[in-house]
Amino acid sequence: MRRRLSLGHSASGLLLVVGVLVAACTISAFAQGNAPAQLPNGPAKPGFDIARFSSNGGLFKTFYVEQTEPLQKVLKDGRIAEDTPVLVTATAAGNLALLTDQMVFHHLAEGRAGGKDWMAAF
Q1: 93 burial class (0-12, 13-18, 19+ CB within 10 angstroms)?
Q2: Rounded Cα distance, 113 and 67, in Å
Q3: Which of 18, 56, 76, 96 lies at 20 to 30 Å from 6 by C-alpha?
Q4: pTM value?
Q5: Handedness of CA 13, 69, 91, 8 (dihedral sign)
Q6: What does the DSSP 8-state code read for residue 120?
Q7: Cα-flanking dihedrals φ and ψ of residue 23, to 5°?
Q8: DSSP character string of 42-98
Q9: H-run or E-run covering 32
Q10: How far apart are CA 18 and CA 111, in angstroms?
Q11: Share of the chain above pLDDT 70, in %
Q12: pLDDT digit string (tens) for 31-74?
């Protein structure tokens, strides 16, 4: 589920993916490479939906999310403005807000929350 949300709207309970330095996130994504996906032979894990899979042919560098912060904290600290556009996706640990500016560059983000993998595409 994707929706555009201004941070001024019901931001409580969201986690925001924020890089201390956007450059650090970008360098990390490039360093990991983005070769076409190598899918194993055999049955898929329960719950895997091939219709949601996108190998993107290596055109975009996947944003590998390793750390999140509570949205209210980054707003309070003044690290982002209340009108910053974000994309919100549901994960096993709750809603996750991704900065639209980061997603415009990466187009794909993935991580792990609540013991389950998640992926967001834009």
Answers
A1: middle
A2: 10
A3: 56
A4: 0.54
A5: positive
A6: E
A7: -60, -40
A8: SPPPTT--GGG---GGGSS--EE----EEHHHHHHTTSS-TT-EEEEEEETTEEEEE
A9: helix 22-32
A10: 14
A11: 62
A12: 445 566 677 777 877 887 777 666 666 677 888 898 889 989 99
